[in-house]
Structures are given as structure tokens and as C-alpha cells.
Amino acid sequence: xxxxxxxxxxxxxxxxxxxxxxxxxxxxxxxxxxxxxxxxxxxxxxxxxxxxxxxxxxxxxxxxxxxxxxxxxxxxxxxxxxxxxxxxxxxxxxxxxxxxxxxxxxxxxxxxxxxxxxxxxxxxxxxxxxxxxxxxxxxxxxxxxxxxxxxxxxxxxxxxxxxxxxxxxxxxxxxxxxxxxxxxxxxxxxxxxxxxxxxxxxxxxxxxxxxxxxxxxxxxxxxxxxxxxxxxxxxxxxxxxxxxxxxxxxxxxxxxxx
Length: 258
Description:
Blueprint: H1 2-14, H2 22-29, H3 33-44, H4 48-66, H5 71-77, H6 83-94, H7 98-107, E1 111-112, E2 122-130, E3 138-145, E4 156-160, E5 164-171, E6 173-183, E7 198-207, E8 216-219, E9 221-222, H8 245-248, E10 251-252
């Protein structure tokens, strides 16, 4: 079944600009759409439609940085018939509008935006991350998200230079801890040429005051075809200097995820 799903994902990457229906995507996997949807979600953690949307937005990020196409033209080139729909989905997923994303990334700037805790008390989520030997220095971005998909602004994040311990301050609720590992030697390159070397995922966490959670143990691994593109802008990635801890949770620059 994994081969069938990977074939469908390849179709999404190759034909993202087309109005692909669930039936068409399932046909490339040679499965009924109902069975395909169930298998797809089990393997990727999301629906085929949401995966296709992530692919389209990833391609839009690349076009915003590598071309001079207008935002309107890019929206049509990645399969959207409505500029408003494209803009709202891009902004929700990346935490910046398409135009602002392009402006900040090309200027090598970051935008300071605070994590939205809505005045709620926060709890500590502690853990560690281990990465295999990559043959080069790495920087690790760890964030807590409302959904398993790495998109939108993390409620909290931390940056490590290599394997080690981390602590995230999050409000009560259900959170997903995710991490991306990039090569520290990539910083002279423009944002759209940088790609995560490794990723890591933690379990679903139900955080409540007065209830201690066991440490989160993350192990980084290479990206696979089943991994969604990273859509959010990751903190501090546009600077070779590691930001101070208090700034790490509020700096939002640009990353063209893979």
C-alpha cells in the first residue's frame, strides 16, 4: 500500500497545477477513493486533499522567491481559481501573506510576532532530540503545534545547535512537538535553496496544569515521500547567528520547506 500512496503523492507533485479530484488521485494508486483515503491518512497523518494543498502552497513559496510572477499569477499557476482563497490559505499556513513573505525573504529580514497565548498560564514541556551523524554542523528548530502538520505559527519554539535538551512553554491543551534539522553551513545560501536534512515527530501531548508529562524523546530521521512539505516560516533561519532564547519564540523569517 505504501508504494501505491507514494505513486499518488508523486502525481500531486507532478500535476499540482491541475484541478485534481480525489477520484483522479486514487486512480493513480489503483485503489477505490474510499479505501485510498483511509490508507493515505494512516500513512501520512492527513487527507489527500490536505496533502495536495500543502504541495501547492510549497510550490507557491518557491515561485514567490524564485520568480517575479505576481501573487495573482502564482495563485493560478499552483491550481487556485480564486486569489482570495489562495491568499487566505497561504497566510493561515505560513503565518505571513504571500506578498509579505516575498518581501521579507528577499530582504533577508525577519518579522517579530509573539506567540498567541491569549493571557493563559503556560506549562513546561521538556524533552530531548537526538540526530544521526550528518557530517556537518546542524541547527535544530523545535516547535509545538496545534495539529500534526507543521504549518502556521508554533505556539512555542526553541533552537538548538546540535542534539540536546529543550523546554517549550505552552498553554493547556493538545499539542504536537515537531522538529526540523538544517545544515548550519547552509546559512550563506538564499532561503529558497535551504532544505531540512532531517525531521522528527513527537506523540500527541495533552497538557494540563498539575499533571507532569514524561520527557519528549525525539529522534531525527531523513525526509520521505510521505512527509508533507514544511509550510511555516521557521525562526532564525535567515541569520547565521543563533537568536537569544527570549527571541526564539517570536522571530518569524522565511523557509522554503521540502
